[in-house]
Amino acid sequence: MHKLVVLYPEPADPDHFRDYYVTTHLPLVARLPGLLAFRYSFDVAATQGPTPYFAIFEADFADADTMAAARSSPQGRRVSADVANYATGGAVVIHYPVHDGVR
Which residues, by range, are in coiled-coil regions (predicted)? Predict the structure, then answer.
């Protein structure tokens, strides 16, 4: 599996961010080809001190090629272009392959 994570710093208008994100942005995300699952939260907390992030998003893809194809698709370009409509604090995007741990 390959994971895409987006970390959002505090926006200028948190209420607008939440509303727009849920009602407009996430429906665009749901149309990404090859998307297996996604999760998000507005309740980001640091284990010590203040958190540098307001919200987090995670998406699962079968592999890096599938994620890259989704991001470069017309739907992916719409998702990327839409970020400026709510994330006035910017966004940090990272991705990585996921390996299962051993207990």
Answer: none
- Map residue 67 onto helix, strand or coil: helix
Strand residue runs (E) in 1-103? 2-8, 37-41, 55-61, 92-97
CB–CB of 50/97 below 8 Å?
A: no
In this prediction, the residues of the chain whose per-residue pLDDT falls under 50 are none
CB atoms within 10 A of CB 77: 11
Taking the alpha carbons at both ends of the chain, their separation in whole angstroms is 19
Alpha helical stretches, state H, the chain:
14-20, 26-29, 64-72, 74-82
Q: Would you give the distance in Å from CA 9 to the centre of its chain?
A: 12
94 three-state secondary structure: strand
Q: Confirm whether pTM is higher than 0.85.
A: yes
